[in-house]
Amino acid sequence: MPKNVAIGVGLMEFPFSGAAAFWRWVDLCEAGGVDSIWQTDRLVSPTPFLECMSVMAALAGRTRRIKFGVNVLSLAMRDAVLVARQCATIDFLSNGRLLPAFGIGSPLGPEWKTLNLDTKTRGRKTDEGLEVIRRLWSEDKVDFEGVHYHLSGASLSPKPVQPDLPMWIGGSSEAAIRRTARYGTGWQSGAELPADVGKVVAAIKKATAEAGRMIDEDHYGAAFPFYFGSPGDGILSAAMAAYEKRTGRDPARYFAIGDEKVILDRVAEYAAVGVEKFILRPVGPDGDAIIGQTRKLIEKVLPQVEARWPKKAKAA
């Protein structure tokens, strides 16, 4: 039975009227016992969208308890040495609350075409980048000779506060499973349904065992949009249409719409296949709606999660 089920919340586009409203939402999450805050990665967008690493740094200064991460950072679009430095700095300044998560980036993202980036090399560049980051976090001097990275005596200090800074990996392809087994300390799903997530979790556990590694049981994650209300509510139409256009999936199957029981039951479905970490995305047309949905999650769902899956203390 899962013992460390934790509920985080995530944002994609920026729905707030301004910075003050965003910080009201963050303060609500911090005070309300939400486990973590997650920002989706997007470099270019016609709609308001916050840059993820800047958000992580800002959250480090604003909050004291809550953890935070990117779901997930597209490493192929960035320089791995800079990312390693940014993560180490943010983890240091937040006293160990950063949850780095990396992936190759969706081929449907606008960045590839807009910035003239090569999608064919994203897997190899990501693998090299993960190796570079992992070594920079743990070694004093790094020499690396690859296709995309060439390092000679590279080092960074201060190191992350977390002695084994988490490296969560996103994606459900066979390559993503191998990548997780080789580098990952955790795995974060995309929009997969529970049955599909269960298959990936099982495959990762098999691959990590074959690699002589292990990922903690509570380091498997899932994400889904939620909405307290009726499927017929008008404000859902735009959000569901945008979701279908972006993913090609039927939003009615992926959104949890209804009351706290509907959301709790969806969490339980994922927990039954080995997921213990969650990123729930509140659905709403503006910041007030997002704050309202988040408040209901805190008041109606979090107490039931704590009662149903009481936390088990981890061994030191």
- Which percent band covers the strand fraction? 15-25%
How many distinct beta strands? Answer: 13
Low-confidence stretches: none
**Assembly context of the chains:** single chain
> What class, by secondary structure content?
alpha/beta
Q: What is the rounded distance between the termini?
A: 21 Å
User: Tell me, what's the shape?
Assistant: globular
Q: Provide mean pLDDT, rounded.
A: 94
Helical amount? 40-55%
Number of helices: 11
Largest sheet: 11 strands, parallel
Cα radius of gyration in angstroms: 19 Å
SSE sequence, one letter per element: EHEHEEHEEHHEEEHEHEHHEHEH
Explain how this protein is built.
With 316 residues, the protein is α/β, with parallel strands linked by helices. The protein has helices at residues 19-32, 52-62, 80-93, 111-114, 122-138, 174-183, 194-210, 235-247, 251-254, 260-271, 287-308, and strands at 6-11, 36-39, 67-70, 73-74, 98-99, 101-103, 142-145, 150-154, 168-170, 186-188, 220-228, 256-258, 277-282. Strands 1, 2, 3, 4, 5, 6, 9, 10, 11, 12 and 13 form an eleven-stranded parallel β-sheet that branches. It has a two-stranded antiparallel sheet with strand order 7-8. Helix 3 crosses helix 5 (122-138). The chain is globular. It starts with 5 loop residues before the first strand and ends in an 8-residue tail after the last helix.
